[in-house]
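cron nightly-structures :: item 1 of 1
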Amino acid sequence: MSRTHLRIALGVVVAAAALYAPYYFQPTMNQELSRALYFAVAAMGLNLLTGFNGQVSIGHGAFFGVGAFTTAILMDSHGMTFELTIPLAALLAAAVGVLVGIPALRVRGLYLALVTLGLAVLFPRIGQKYVKGRGGVALVRPDRDGFDSLLDALANDQWQYLECLAIAAVLFLLAYNLTRSRIGRAMVAVRDQEVAASTVGVNLARVKVGAFALSAAYAGVAGSLSVMVDRAADATDPTVAFRNSIEFLVAVVIGGTATIAGPAIGALVVVLLRRETDGLIEGKEVLSPAIFGAALIAMIYVLPGGVVGGLRKLTDRILPARDGEPPGPVAAAALEPEAVATPGGAGAGPHTRAPTTKEKP
C-alpha cells in the first residue's frame, strides 16, 4: 500500500466516523464533539497565521469573542436567524483582524505575541463596558428556539453537531486549497525568508494583514458556532478570552503546526482532555487545571512534533517513501521553490528540498 492509498483510506474512515458519531453518542457527548469542532475552526485560523505565516498570536480569544457577541446580539436584539449571523460575525472579526494586523506590521515574534496578548486582556473589559445583556451584565443569551433543528429527523444536538461539522469541513477544505495556492506559498515564503520573499515581489504587508484578517474570520466563525453550542456569549469572566487564546494555541501545537489535520486533532484532544480532567479527583477540583497542564506537557514530551508529526514518523517506518512519490501535504506547501527562489537560487530557505540524484549535475 502506498502513502497516498493510506491517506485516502484514513480519510474515508475518519469521514464515516464523523458522520456516524451523532447517531451513536448521547446528547452530552454530541455537545462536547460540537465544542471540539468549533474549537478546531478557531485553531485552524490560528494555524494559518502562526503555522503557515509565522506570526505568533495569543489573542485569538478576542476575535472569537467578537464573533460570539455578533451572533448573540444580532439574534437577541434584531431577531436574525443563526445561519445569517455567521458570515456577519466572520466579516466583523476579519475587520478587527485588519485593525490589529496593520500596526502589528511593525513588530514580530515575541513582541507581536505581547501585542495580541494585550488584545485578549482588553477584550473582556470592552465587552463589560459596552455590552449590557439581560441583568445589565456582559452576558447575552439568545432564545433557545433559534437553534432548533430544521429537520424533523434530527434531534437538536445532532443537528448542531452536523451543522458545526459541515462548516468546519468547508473551512478546512478552504485552508487546504489555500495552502497549495500561490497565496499559500507566499505566506510560507514570508514565514521562512521575508527578505527573499520581498525580493521576488511578494507584498509582505498585504500577505501579513491578509493572513491576520483570514485568521480572525475563522475565529469569528468559531465564536458564532460557540453561541449555538454553549447558548451564550459571555464576557463577565475577564480570563475567558485569555484562556481561549492559550487553548487555541495549545490545540495547534498538540495537533501539529503548519498541518491541515493538526488543529482538528489538537482541538479534539484539548476538549476531551479538559472534560476528563475536570473533577477527576473528588473533593480536589482545584487540582483539575494542574492535571490538565501536566497531561499536555506529557503529550508534548512524547510527541514533540505534535500528533501529526508522530503519525508521520510512524508512517515513515512502516511505509518508506518510494522514488517519485510526492512529499507530504505540508512539505508540498512549504517547499515549493518557485514561491521564493530566484534564478540564482536566492530565497531558498533552510527547508528547501535538496536535489535528488537525478537533478545533480
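cron nightly-structures :: done
The CA atoms of residues 49 and 258 lie 9 Å apart.
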